[in-house]
Amino acid sequence: MPFEYLALLAATCWAFGSLLSARAATHLGAFAFTRYRMLVAMLLLWALALYNGGWQSLSSSSIMLLTLSGAIGIFIGDTALFAAMNRLGPRRAGVLFATHALFSVLLAYFWLGETLWGLTLVGSSLLLSGVMIAILFGKRQAEQHQWESQQTGLVTGVALGLLAALCQAVSTLMLKPLMLTDIDAIAASAVRMSTGFVLHLLIFLLGFKVARSYLPLTGSVLLMVIINATLSMVLGMTFILQALKHGDAGMVAMLSSVSPVLVLPMLWLVYKRSPAWGAWVGALLTVLGTVLIIRQ
Fold it and tell me: Which residues span the membrane (predicted)?
């Protein structure tokens, strides 16, 4: 399958996963929810890698690189993003995190020598602009989260949001040379996920209050955690690593960043209410940008 479609499949998995995560994340708290879904994803990935023999494709050097990538992208990046949400709210933090696609393109140029020209550059610009517009103006005023009115810690929140985006970009790009080898994408995802889970578990074991569950884990919440972990962390991250085997890292990051736009029609179906004008404008720009990229 072409890498463009693998990246879009990853974005679709993340969109579905985020739609199903709201209740579980509210019930458990962001850190506890992340810890539980990392555990589920890690167990699934380990089982799949054992089944297909993917562990045999790993070497000691690749494990070290995957561990570093997991620590930067999954642990530091996610932690910074949650901290940014606490200060800025989901909408503004989401806009800042969407810059990971821009960071990826810039870093891919300086690090890997990848360049964007012609209609691909135009398409990438439209796509990134569309994603940001959809996040920033995609909700009506009455639908804003209570955190949106919070103004404290603005500078710190912006810095944390940009840090999360940078970590996401760096952790993905550092794997590009590795994914060009015969390494198995599922086993690679398992190592990264294991790193993230162990570090999150360490925070919990050290007694940090933020890592505790708000409410006890129930059967229905556990089911949502399992579904989210399967979609977002098992399928989504494996699709991304597989896409890196065949495509430019900057393009993979750009196309996979459309998940906030893909969430909009899903929310429309669930809540039976048309998205705000900003969502339509953002979605249109994103679709146009994606078409220009894929047709090249």
Answer: 34-51, 63-83, 95-112, 119-137, 157-175, 196-215, 221-244, 251-271, 277-294
